[in-house]
Design a protein that fits this description.
Layout lengths: L1 H4 L31 H22 L5 H8 L7 H12 L16 H16 L8 H11 L4 H8 L9
Helix pairs in contact: 2-6, 3-4, 4-5
């Protein structure tokens, strides 16, 4: 529930990064606090994009397994249990290559990933995950994709990654 109180549903840790939409006064010593849930999701989308770029540079595939292994390392989490939960909740394959977050056609699978990670991080049921805030956060992260995301949401993108 801490992630919900902080408008930080993926529990992004505090760091030197100055996040857009972060509350001016940060009272949580460990996790970033955001002005709205959409800004918390924006930060998550931006981190996922940076993972994609790092994985490509390192020759690693952008998969759920690699993402979660980086997001929730074994030094802090039961990473394998986290991966299994996210795969099950999001109806995803652990080794399937995902499109980069900046490609709106991949929004379907990645939004399921983000939703499942929210469930694991916040301990809420899948149906309570705020899909509108996830989409708003996506548009805050990738505003140039507004038209493409709307096509995807309306089922008009023939290349949509479900």
């Amino acid at each position: 529930m801490r992630g919900l109180r902080n408008n930080n549903p993926l529990n992004i840790r505090r760091s030197a990064t100055r996040w857009q939409g972060a509350r001016e006064k940060q009272t949580d010593k460990s996790f970033v606090q955001f002005e709205s849930m959409a800004y918390g999701y924006r930060a998550a989308w931006k981190i996922l994009q940076s993972y994609y770029e790092r994985f490509c540079t390192a020759g690693k595939p952008f998969t759920v397994r690699n993402i979660i292994s980086r997001w929730a390392p074994p030094t802090e989490n039961d990473t394998e249990a986290y991966i299994i939960n996210v795969l099950k909740l999001g109806s995803l394959g652990g080794k399937e290559k995902l499109l980069p977050p900046s490609n709106a056609s991949g929004y379907g699978r990645l939004s399921r990933l983000v939703s499942a990670m929210t469930v694991v991080e916040c301990g809420i049921p899948f149906h309570q995950v705020d899909q509108e805030a996830i989409a708003q956060g996506y548009l805050l992260a990738f505003p140039k994709n507004k038209e493409k995301l709307e096509e995807w949401l309306n089922g008009e993108d023939e290349y949509a990654d479900w």
